[in-house]
Amino acid sequence: MDVADAIALYLLLEQQPGAYRHALERLGSPTTVLAANARQWRAVGLSEAACERRASWPQGRSVEAIRAQWLKSARWLEAERRGIWFDSAESDAAGESWPRAFASLPKRPPLLFWEGDDSVMGLPQIAIVGSRAATRAGLAQAHSLAAELAQAGFSVTSGLASGIDGAAHAGALSVDGRTLAVLGCGLDRIYPPRHQGLAQRIAQSGLLVSEFAPGSTPEPWCFPRRNKVIAALSLGVLVVEAGPASGSIITAQAADQLSRLVWAMPGSVSSLQSRGCHALIRTGQAKLAETAQDVIDDVLPTLRDWYGGSSEALPAEAMLQAPRADPDENGRHLLALMGWDISIVDDLLAHAGLPADQVLTTLSELEIAGWIGAVPGGYQRLSP
Fold first, then answer.
1. Cis omega (within 30 of 0) on the bond before 192?
2. Burial class (CB in 10 A: 0-12, 13-18, 19+), 159
3. In percent, how much of the chain has pLDDT > 90?
4. d(Cα 134, Cα 273) in Å, to the nearest integer?
5. Contact 164, 139 (CB under 8 A)
6. What's the angle, vertex CA 307, arms to CA 207 and CA 183, rounded to 5?
7. Predicted TM-score of the model (pTM)
8. By 3-state DSSP, what share of the chain in percent is helix, strand and coil, each rounded to 5?
9. Is the dihedral of CA 82, 307, 150, 240 positive or negative?
């Protein structure tokens, strides 16, 4: 399959999966579809708008221009560390494996662009999503949950957005874990722009994916599709903080429809960022999760299926048997400051006498090691 022809056709059909699949089913490969004229497109039932674009094409972006953009779109990695998965009989015949998580889905993105280490797609994934306007407590929870899940052998999946998404990616990277970011734009258009550095770090050791072609700008209609890909790739979705009508709720609902596991973390009843989580729990769409252990316990049966029924290979079970690491000086200081009461993150930040990022990192390390656990409102010591 010619990559530039596939991208050109996808763009001509405004990156609409249904129209793209229909064109291939009726006319053949992307190359043959592009060779057909507007009259032939009308004959197979493509929209009038698509036929008009075909009649005036190539105009603006020719196949060669698209090929050139694809070749230069990977800014950080060598060419062999990026590619496209195609959902087509032609790709199946060529032995090109479609991502395992999508194998049983009736409707998959027809093209999925990737950059980084594509083996990450073969790891069991847990999605962590939440509010862009997250609280400091929510950011700390997302960071520590992601770190603990990454150490358990899961790839942490999220959407590279501000707030909870970014904290989840950073948490996985903080323990040299794997993380996968699903973008709502082309891989050459990182959004938000301030996550350029984070995206580069993910590309080096994890994976960036998008169903949108290079050059695609982040548009409002792109993000619901991005959220559905996050749900499809994951064994389950954990919502840390979310407003009642946020994109995270769309991700959770998509996961539920795909028979994926869904969890939500409770929070303060006075917090707007907790209302979406509470609604998911109240309506039975999500299970209540207070710690990463809750997620691990629920996902283990699914994980056994993922590893072919063998419990010996389960990274999560191996983690549960690992000895607890002793806290460092900062960890001992925070444990002493916490005592045995529930400690609010904002209070710890105010009284620890340490930089905020150091407090959040130390809390993550203490939770991963099993010294503290996340509870509604903050953290609590688990044992002497």
1. yes
2. buried
3. 45
4. 7
5. yes
6. 20
7. 0.78
8. 50, 10, 40
9. positive
